[in-house]
Design goal:
445 residues, single chain, 14 helices
Length: 445
Amino acid sequence: MHKTFSNLMVKLTYALILSSAVFAGSGGGVRAHEVMPTIADLSVSDGSAHLTLRINLEAFLAGIDLDTVVDTNNAENAGDYDSLRAQPAGQIAARAPELLDTWNKLPVLRADGQPAVLETVSITIPEDVNMSLPRVAQWELTAPVPPATNGIVVSWPAGAGALVVRQQGVEEPYTGYLEGGSQSPEIVLGGGGQQTAWQAFTTYIPVGFDHIVPKGLDHILFVLGLFFLSSHIRPLLWQVSAFTAAHTVTLALGAMGWVAVPASIVEPLIAASIVYVAVENIFTSRLSRWRPLVIFGFGLLHGLGFASVLGAFGLPQDQFIPALIGFNIGVEIGQLTVIAIIFLCVWQALRVARGQGAERMAKVLYLTLAAVALGLSLMPMPRLAQVLDAPVALFLIPGALIFGACFLSVQFRHTAEPYRRFVAVPASIGIALVGAYWFVERVFL
């Protein structure tokens, strides 16, 4: 009877985690509408400030909160965005003055503290862009400034997402990264405002971290796939070391422009790498001699994915190396954060499986955590959903399932390899299904 009940609970756990994986895959894997920062090139000559923007006008006109949304498909007004994206370029250009009026009220530019009113010089919007991809416009703006102007401050509206400001035409130019609702320091028109190595380093650490937590769900699942191979620290260290070394190489090469692989190739292969590590976890619990080499190869792919992000943000040429190192460290901190969180989730189950923990306390803990996670998943939390750029339940329900699986691992601790049977294998199946869904989506959909 005990064996029959045990098998039934295993199947139930599998079914729950698999259904959760499909739910997660349907909500978070699309990259075609990924929000990218606006790039602004600033120069001043002949009494005029010139601002050239590379911008997704449709996202702004749709009123999407770009500070919190990672993918326009997940925005509340995604339908408005899609409608605008389907319109001819001329119609979008005709609506740009609406946006410019709100910017001038801020204002976006101030010359020696005085507002500088921007006017449109030209808008170039490509027509031949696939409908599934964002359409990046080039918007040239100008504003009169007093001839004796010493410096300009750039303010960026709340909800406008990230802005990369690059000063042009001077020695030691300023290059900065602004979040929505923030402003630059005074950009001295004569130059000399370039970031120090330390400033560039510290600026790009959060950029790298943010690309993992919360925006890098595919990289998160890959790291979790590494974690669930074995409950021992040595296999994890070998895998993470190989992955880190590899993505550092291609991140540097890609950021320097020496290697460039289209996202249409890189993104499906990243999804395939997730499937591989997860499927292998199902069939083995030991680190094979060749798995670190395979992980190294997959790390090269993930590094190209990181490099594409840096390509969109742009690295300050004057402080290229410190910014690159800062971004990479941010990525590593993000990965270690993921590992630390999942380790804390399963720690008591591991201790009980090794005969080191109190079974009763562990069962009470996991039942409580599962109930809390399920309860919170039913509560509306719009602010947190905006930060996560996804329904909160998308994270809480899998968390509840992990806690439930850990409870079963403790409950049936006398079975063979309870942690692997109830936690590692079901979780790996869920990860594999999500990766498979993304692969199909990125290749065929």
